[in-house]
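Sample pair:
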Amino acid sequence: MKFDMGKTTLTTLAQQTSGSSDDLGVLIRQLVAAAEPLEGKFNGSGKAAFDQFKAHADEITGELNSSLQGILGGQSGMDKAFGTGDVETADNAHHIMSTANFDAARFNGR
């Protein structure tokens, strides 16, 4: 199995996720505004559910954004880990190569 990821993949993903977080709050507010004309048409449990959603729209937005912030934290941690692993792999390879005796591996006897 081969896993190949570009050096900026997780950074780009984090930027896109951050943008999604901003968009999410706007979309929830747009949903509430779009549903305003329906407000007087609900009765019973439908009205109660709509009123509850409307009353808690900011809270819902905050909780969703908090969840996205957790995802961003995970992406940032993965980005750091992959970057550190990349540097350590290169450092280890250079160290091992510097201690190798390449002249001993020649078969032409010189």
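The CA atoms of residues 9 and 63 lie 26 Å apart.
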